[in-house]
Amino acid sequence: MTVPPPGRLIIVSGPSGAGKSTVVRRLIECCQLPLELSVSATTRAPREGETDGKEYHFLSPERFEALRQEGAFLESKEVFSLGRWYGTLHEQVATGLKMGRWVILEIDVEGAIEVMASDLDPITLFIHPGSHEELEKRLRARGTETEQDLQARLKTAAEEMKSLAHYQYAIINDDVERAVDEICSILRQSQGT
Ligand SMILES: Nc1ncnc2c1ncn2[C@@H]1O[C@H](COP(=O)(O)OP(=O)(O)OP(=O)(O)O)[C@@H](O)[C@H]1O
Ligand SMILES: Nc1nc2c(ncn2[C@@H]2O[C@H](COP(=O)(O)O)[C@@H](O)[C@H]2O)c(=O)[nH]1
């Protein structure tokens, strides 16, 4: 039986609305590496068009807390301080890495810093849109948040920008295809290291 080459862990963080999901989706489509997204668990409600198990595992607060108590999460955070939890499941990561996949965690800064301190040796990327004005424009255009939620996301964004120095690479997502090319080159260069 052939043993697959070892997998890698990749962390993608950045303010809500920076375009992380858009860029990661495209990266997985077009970068010739065995990339896969780790599907996080969350207690937030699904948005229109989101499917359980695809964008997230949508859980009740009780189920999420039970999993937390069991130690099922590599990390979990109450992102935006609005009572909604998000977490990376150990099993998602372990299964992907064992199969030689390059597993992408799309997670907030606090969760990312926790994973950086582990022995998983992640490649770390911080995606931002170039300006706070552009971020607000994108979040408003996406139209998925209430005004209260949007304001919480913008406030958190200002805080998250201060953590950019914790990351190995900062990517400006001013153009999706350009950002994807840049990230794909970074990942390819790290192959074999
Ligand atoms: N380079 C870009 N230029 C203009 N609009 C963009 C760009 N990249 C993404 N967008 C748009 O910005 C919005 C936010 O993108 P996306 O949902 O991917 O952000 P995100 O960082 O994953 O947000 P969240 O953290 O809230 O999940 C979307 O409507 C998306 O189509
Ligand atoms: N610490 C973690 N943060 C996570 C995880 N999954 C997503 N996120 C972060 O949440 C925000 C908001 O996501 P949205 O889908 O509600 O727009 C996003 O910016 C991610 O940074 C996780 O498992 N752990």
UniProtKB/TrEMBL annotation:
Residues 7-188 form the Guanylate kinase-like domain. ATP binds at G14, P15, S16, G17, A18, G19, K20, S21. It is found in: Cytoplasm. CDD domains: GMPK. Keywords: ATP-binding, Cytoplasm, Kinase, Nucleotide-binding, Transferase. Its EC number is 2.7.4.8. It catalyses: GMP + ATP = GDP + ADP. GO terms for cellular component: cytosol. Pfam families: Guanylate_kin. One of its GO terms (molecular function) is ATP binding. The keyword ATP-binding applies. InterPro entries: GK/Ca_channel_bsu, Guanylate_kin-like_dom, Guanylate_kinase, Guanylate_kinase_CS, P-loop_NTPase. It comes from the Bacteria. Essential for recycling GMP and indirectly, cGMP. Belongs to the guanylate kinase family. This is Guanylate kinase.
